[in-house]
Amino acid sequence: MVSRPFDTAYRLVLRAQIVLKAAEGLQNQAIAAALHTEPDTVSLWRRRFQVHRLAGIEKDAPRPGRKPEIPPAAVDRILEKTLRGGPRTGPLGRWRRPSA
After folding, report:
1. Which region among 5-14, 46-55, 56-65, 83-92 has the lowest average model confidence (pLDDT)?
2. Using CA atoms, how far apart are residues 42 and 25, in angstroms rounded to an integer?
3. CA 16 – CA 41 distance, rounded (Å)
4. What ranges in the chain are assigned the alpha helix state H?
């Protein structure tokens, strides 16, 4: 079996083909067989197109994902201090290279 690239362009073409075949009057099973995908996939994109029209098939629904361990504000502060701040006084105040 040849693997297909599942990039954004491929997925968008598949979704558009699902909608077009549905407009021709084909049932989910027939569309799935013709496009070598699952009936659940056909059902999902037909439903999203019905509710949201073109916008429904253009973009994937947001997924939860993992929350970042360091909040974005903390990352910004660290970068600001690292890039703009110079060495400070005190025992850790000088920038040094490790001695060999």
Report:
1. 83-92
2. 13
3. 12
4. 8-23, 28-35, 39-52, 54-58, 72-84
